[in-house]
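Usage

Read records sequentially. Each one opens with the input sequence:
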Amino acid sequence: MDPALAMLVLVSAGLHPLWNALIKRDPRPEGAFLGVMVLLALLGGAHSLVAGYDLLAARHVWPLIAVSWAGLTVYATCMVVTLRRGDLSAYYPIIRSSPLFIVAAGVLFLGERYGGPMLAGVALVLIGAFFLQYRRAARLLDDPGTLALAVLAMAGTGIYSIADSRAMQVLEPPVLLFWVQVLCVPSYVLVFRARGRSAPDWGALFLWTKRPLRTLGIGVMCYVSYYLILWVYGHGGDVAAVTSVRQASIPFSVLIGGLWLKEPDMTRRLFASLILAAGIVVIVVAG
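and closes with the structure output:
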């Protein structure tokens, strides 16, 4: 990857766990994330209009936008519940392990085969994920429900990453951001309102309107993070290489979890996250 493109991906990787941590610290993360989605749509639309981009150009890649919308909806809903139930430093690394999903999809659905280096990378990811979850005197998988949500969020990330990388060959980043978020906002609300007794009430989903400056700060941070990735895709960044470089966010999330959110077992989790990140890099390079 071109060094300039890699630097932009690293900037995005630094921003991503930071705004995730701000969402986690919110008393109603479901509502905070809804506010971010609304802002992404507004920022994408305004950016497109100011820059003179054709919003209707999206009609040429509607199937890719639909796939991105589906993947992002799965990612967003599962990620918010995961952050509500578990530690950022434990589950963020799993959520961001999308290259593992891409490799698994290739084996299961595309008939691809991988050699020793690829299998070694998979083993490193599994080892890192195990030690992120392991606690003494606890079950082998301490919270399988939250772990399953984190894995679903990871799959959603892989789905929308593949779709976005292809859509960027036709669209400008703000145009894609606008349409995907316009679709995601209502679906996100419907998913959370369908959770029965555990569903947040309408007021909780819109608490973000009472703290506009905080929501704006998180939204701008999120917009810049995703815009940079889409811009790199549009300028020749390979999706596998980009998702590999983005794994720099994994150890950073562990540091945020320990130093800011005061989560426990940081030494073990940082070591495990480095193993997991190394495994993902091996997977991408070997693929």
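Summary fields computed downstream for this record:
- The mean pLDDT is 79.
- Residues 114 and 287 are 7 Å apart (CA to CA).
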